[in-house]
Specification:
Layout lengths: L15 E5 L2 E5 L16 H15 L2
Antiparallel strand pairs: 1-2
């Protein structure tokens, strides 16, 4: 007997992180994104954490 498991990707949103004008930003294919005009420069780590929170918040 063969058992198949479907590993569902619950984080169906995959934001990308990139550098824009000296600050790190994230954007997602769903239209979600970090602030376009940051109050202060965002570090790479902050952008990644925000992107991960976005993915997690949208998971079913």
């Amino acid at each position: 007997m063969t058992v198949q498991r479907n590993h569902r990707n619950v984080a169906h949103h995959h934001p990308s992180v990139h550098r824009v004008r000296g600050s790190w930003v994230w954007e997602c294919g769903c239209g979600g994104a970090s602030r376009r005009i940051p109050v202060r420069e965002r570090t790479w780590r902050e952008a990644v954490i925000e992107a991960l929170l976005h993915s997690d918040a949208l998971a079913p």
